[in-house]
Amino acid sequence: MSDAQARLSAMALSSFALNGQFLKIAEQLAAPAGLTATRWQVLGAVLNEPLTQAEIARRMGITRQSVRRTASQLVDDGLLRMAENPSHRKAKLLQPTTQGLAAIEQISPQHAAFAKVLEGRLGKSHMAEISDTLAELQSVLDELS
User: Fold this and answer.
1) HTH marR-type domain: which residues (predicted)?
2) Distance of alpha carbon 38 from its chain centroid, rounded?
3) Alpha-carbon distances of 4 from 87, 110, 130, 141, rounded to whole Å
4) How does pLDDT run across 15-26, given as a tens digit for each residue?
5) Which residues does the chain have with pLDDT short of 50?
6) Cα–Cα dist 143/145, whole Å
7) 36 phi and psi, to 5 degrees?
8) How many CA within 13 A on the CB side of residue 53?
9) Is 85 exposed, middle or buried (0-12, 13-18, 19+ CB in 10 A)?
């Protein structure tokens, strides 16, 4: 195995482990608001702008079927609403409701506290560097795939 292959394998294995850790942390942070990590992920995707289910799936790297199922549950629970999409008649836009925004707001204090603890361990500049490096890796992988 070449050095490049070994580094790629190490990055992939670390990413898989990190994904599991982030999901576990997200479950703990979202639980007091009555959400799961998946429901928080889909709801959080539309906080800044309305998106279609396909757009959420692409941005989050999850399947459309998973987004469709989760979004449907969130709509049924009154946390998301579907709006007309001027760009596409069939693909509705998802937007948070007042209740959905309240659920996200309920998560915010624990989320902020955990972020502060993590920043304390890593340091502000190193945490920013890690975030930038992960964003760069994601961008390069998007270009290559």
Assistant:
1) 1-145
2) 8
3) 43, 39, 20, 15
4) 999 999 999 999
5) none
6) 6
7) -105, 170
8) 19
9) middle
Maximal CA-CA distance, the chain? 53
Identity of the amino acid at 31? A
The Cα 126–Cα 62 span in angstroms is: 28
What pLDDT does residue 90 have? Answer: 85
Taking CA atoms, 114 is separated from 38, 39, 91, 98, 111, in Å, by 19, 19, 36, 25, 5
Place of tokens 């580094």: 7
The gap between the terminal CA atoms of the chain, to the nearest Å, is 22
CB 102 within 8 A of CB 32: no
Neighbours of 35 (CB within 10 A): 25
Domain count, the chain: 1
Domain extent at residue 86 = 3-144
d(CA 119, CA 140): 26
Which CATH number fits the domain that encloses residue 74? 1.10.10.10
The span from the CA of 87 to the CA of 104, in Å, is 28
Query: Model pTM?
Result: 0.86
